[in-house]
Design goal:
One of its GO terms (molecular function) is dTDP-glucose 4,6-dehydratase activity. InterPro entries: dTDP_Gluc_deHydtase, NAD(P)-bd_dom, NAD(P)-bd_dom_sf. It catalyses: dTDP-alpha-D-glucose = dTDP-4-dehydro-6-deoxy-alpha-D-glucose + H2O. Pfam families: GDP_Man_Dehyd. This protein is α/β, with parallel strands linked by helices and 342 residues long. The protein has a domain of 202 residues: Rossmann fold, CATH 3.40.50.720. The protein is 44% helix and 16% strand. The chain has twelve helices and 13 strands. The strands form four sheets. A seven-stranded parallel beta sheet has the order 3-2-1-4-5-6-11, with helices on both faces. The structure holds nicotinamide-adenine-dinucleotide and 2'deoxy-thymidine-5'-diphospho-alpha-D-glucose. The site of 2'deoxy-thymidine-5'-diphospho-alpha-D-glucose has 20 residues, from helix 3, helix 6 and strand 8.
């Protein structure tokens, strides 16, 4: 059984993946490498730290000596790279760290994988395809047309991963995920932001007309999709992971407010995100052909996520009342006051 180096394993999707993987693979071993940025939180795995199959190394994926040493000392056979700066709005406010981690960090992992002859699975995003016109669904061979600093950094990483396969024959796979929702998502992202604002009785800042479309997929289905590719995917291939069905942000907001029993008067339309991608939509047939299928419809995924926030104030209340406040003010104060962008 492989020993996994799960980078970014203390973040939202990484922690859900680690929990899922260890629940399904009794002989599995997982070493997390995580810088513990604001989005990386030990408490996301509060129930697992006593498990002898799991260990944590705190550090940066861009630190080549650390990555090499960790892989050698821990007998790593497979790197699964979740580590990234992940929020589009943060990438608009401060883009350079996105290049440091998402591009250079991924490049360092590839170099270590090349040196030590390891397989690398890279977690990418539907944002690399850019805005998708009505009627089209992105397939894995579509061109990459990223439009935000975040998406551009993820697209650069994808291309490095593919280049290492073509040039050096490195055994790689890539999954491109849709908008994930579920437990332990940092409340800067729309669904947990709206759910926690609703629970706090604060307004929900909807960018622009709220008719942008996203495929809100449950993180559990992303984890099973990654597992399917790790176990059955073809080396060198890319797989989309989502539900294949989108909804508007206003529909998502309605679900959140209805599940939480809050009034729709909390919705505020505010100044739009610059360069806001209007629609993402992916065809997921290639992953289905591996035998995978999503368990959650997007409406259930959003509803279940909202319920999780209602039941887990212990997790989000300290974040909301702490460091998050400064970001929230910078991002939303002027918008909510009706005086424009941050
Ligand atoms: P997140 O922001 O919740 O977590 C990111 C994790 O990476 C954190 O634990 C953080 O501490 C760690 N990290 C950041 N920089 C690091 C560095 N230099 N070295 C080591 N660790 C570092 O992110 P997420 O939402 O869980 O996303 C995980 C991955 O999935 C990312 O690659 C993201 O691009 C991709 N993705 C996310 C979504 C989504 O909807 N959230 C959808 C598709 C793909
Ligand atoms: O599509 C996959 C991507 O999904 C991932 O690669 C990213 O890491 C992840 O952050 C997410 O990106 P989005 O920008 O789509 O997600 P976010 O939750 O920030 O926003 C979802 C939608 O809601 C988007 O259309 C913008 C809108 N929005 C977001 C925020 C934070 C608002 O209307 N108001 C808000 O305050």
């Amino acid at each position: 059984m492989d020993t996994l180096l799960v980078t970014g394993g203390c973040g939202f999707i990484g922690s859900n993946f680690v929990r899922y993987w260890l629940s399904q693979h009794a002989q599995g071993r997982v070493v997390i490498l995580d810088k513990l940025t604001y989005a990386g939180r030990r408490e996301n795995l509060h129930d697992l730290w006593d498990d002898p199959r799991l260990s944590l190394v705190v550090g940066d994926i861009a630190d080549q000596a650390l990555v090499r040493r960790t892989c050698q000392e821990q007998g790593v056979t497979l790197i699964v790279n979740f580590a990234a700066e992940t929020h589009v709005d943060q990438s608009i406010l401060g883009p350079l760290v996105f290049t440091d981690t998402n591009v250079r960090g991924t490049h360092v992992l590839l170099e270590v994988a090349r040196e030590l002859r390891l397989r690398l699975h890279h977690i990418s995003t539907d944002e690399v395809y850019g805005h998708i016109p009505d009627q089209h669904q992105s397939v894995e061979t579509d061109p990459l047309l990223p439009r935000s600093p975040y998406a551009a950094s993820k697209a650069a990483a994808d291309q490095l991963v593919q280049a290492y396969h073509i040039t050096y024959g490195l055994p790689v796979t890539i999954t491109r995920g849709a908008n994930n929702v579920g437990p332990y998502q940092y409340p800067e992202k729309a669904v947990p932001l709206f759910a926690t604002n609703a629970l706090l009785g604060e307004p929900l800042p909807v960018y622009g007309d709220g008719l942008q479309m996203r495929d809100y997929a449950h993180v559990h289905d992303h984890c099973t999709g990654i597992e399917a590719v790790l176990l059955h995917g073809r080396i060198g291939e890319v797989y989309n992971v989502g539900t294949g069905r989108e909804m508007t942000n206003l529909e998502m907001v309605d679900i959140v407010l209805d599940v939480l029993g809050r009034d729709h008067s909390l919705v505020r339309h505010v100044t739009d995100r610059p360069g806001h991608d209007r629609r993402y939509s992916m065809n997921v047939d290639k992953l289905r052909a591996l035998g995978w299928q999503p368990q959650y419809d997007p409406r259930e995924a959003v509803a279940e996520a909202a319920r999780w926030y209602a039941g887990n104030e212990w997790w989000w209340a300290p974040i909301r009342s702490g460091e998050f406040r400064a970001y929230y003010d910078a991002q939303y104060r002027a918008r909510l006051a009706g005086t424009g962008q941050p």
